[in-house]
């Protein structure tokens, strides 16, 4: 099994990079584990309080469960991945059954901030992008997917997203084996990355 970590700031283009990797590999060989599924359940708090949550701080994620699940997959065991809703800021009662695959991609803004999780990764990728590009993507995404107003998105960006990026996300770039500049638009870097993954899989007789 090959475990790939893909980190980077909010709106950097991580999802595009993940999708390009999936497209380049045989169907059914890859499973993606999003960090976002492992946000702490805050159903015990009032809705107003939940909506003010800082999603960009490492303490907002249940890394213990994420690490446990990656270890299980590595051991060939299936897991029950949580389902998290940004609209209610709570976890659903249902889970998603995930089976082990030859390639496991762990994707999220803060995944390199957890030492134990980093140690489980064979390849660590940091998707880099200009702050302006990331902000425009965050605005578009949060309005459509998370039902927020432009003002609310900008307020949140200034209050938590930007300072947390500088404090917790940008510094983890030093742990990356590969940095993909210009986010998901850098076809050359993504092609090099997929070639490395394919070569590694072949050397392990996984392709």
Question: Explain this structure to me?
Answer:
The radius of gyration is 17 Å and the shape is globular. With 207 residues, it is an alpha/beta fold. It has a single domain, classed as 3-Layer(aba) Sandwich (Rossmann fold), CATH 3.40.50.300. The chain has seven helices and seven strands. The strands form two sheets. A five-stranded parallel sheet has the order 2-5-1-6-7, sandwiched between helices. It has helices at residues 14-24, 47-50, 63-74, 115-119, 131-145, 150-169, 187-203, and strands spanning 2-8, 30-34, 79-85, 90-98, 103-107, 123-127, 178-180. Helix content is 41%, strand content 20%.
Helices, strands, pairings?
Blueprint: E1 2-8, H1 14-24, E2 30-34, H2 47-50, H3 63-74, E3 79-85, E4 90-98, E5 103-107, H4 115-119, E6 123-127, H5 131-145, H6 150-169, E7 178-180, H7 187-203
Parallel strand pairs: 1-5, 1-6, 2-5, 6-7
Antiparallel strand pairs: 3-4
Helix pairs in contact: 1-7, 5-6
